[in-house]
């Protein structure tokens, strides 16, 4: 018999409700942490990953849903947050690539948005999280991001993803079934072009020509591979010597620790010996000066955000054989799933509280092998509260650096 979760006995759910709970939320009771833990309540950390790791970096991540169709205001928030993060010494700003759905709607063109950020900042890293490479010709990717790398004086890095939503592939329908293989093939072409070499292409009149892209970047392309819960994607990243971008959506800290071990093993088996590979973890975040202010603030906007994500999942499920028929999920089912997801985020899958109360979660992530936090801050809070969170993330970065110095 299943143990009750947040007062709900899974054995009492309909098969559709249970399947959706287990697939969408991946609830794990082991290793759960409270929303505002104290140091005395700190859970045991997973075993540390062998080898030296750099001090943890703290970055911003943006992935808002466009529920009110006010993109200008959302872009203004992103730009102002990026300016503040640049002043505070945060590590990087991540923006995603999303298409054709309200969830992530402000972000169809990450290079364009990051170009605006580049013009208003001086030092902060500019990251795409993620470019869905099977949707694009690598010639155009190399050109577009080469321009941005030049404008920003070498601050650009990319995380690449294979894509998951079939409807996105109206941009390249033939790539969908082979999207993982297509990503690997196009990554090799992108690397070739980025270092200034040519790519053979078919040209008019039956000719084949060697094509090079410009401008030529002055440094190698820092590249991540986006992976959530699929262990094989982590192994692929290790074999290709890529950094990893992951998230807490479908896994726990303990799960991440296990996958980091797989990743490091794959790197070693492929002969990669450097110790500078990064594991970036995206997690929903709201820090405030007073920990007790956080849950009342975030409960309603985070619930709306998760509802938008559930809509996207149902759209995905309608095109896949995942054992769930969205039309059979009732409003009561949705309410249960949303409350379940909200509690999971607040308790074990995000940073919610003050700098001090979130340090135990930070320590667990570092022990699991995470080297960078991608703090998703734009899930519907008022602008001033988002700015407060960014300022507190500046404090968190300072604390992390101070503790790293003390440990040396």
UniProtKB/TrEMBL annotation:
Disordered: annotated span: 28-48
Sorted UniProt keywords: Monooxygenase, Oxidoreductase
GO cellular component: cytosol
Ranges in coiled-coil conformation: none
Pfam families, A to Z: Bac_luciferase
Luciferase-like domain residues: 60-371
Gene Ontology molecular-function annotations: monooxygenase activity; oxidoreductase activity, acting on paired donors, with incorporation or reduction of molecular oxygen
InterPro entries: Bact_Lucif_Oxidored, Biosynth_lucif-like_mOase_dom, Luciferase-like_dom, Luciferase-like_sf
Name of the protein in its database record: Natural product biosynthesis luciferase-like monooxygenase domain-containing protein
Gene source species: Micromonospora nigra
Origin organism lineage: Bacteria, Bacillati, Actinomycetota, Actinomycetes, Micromonosporales
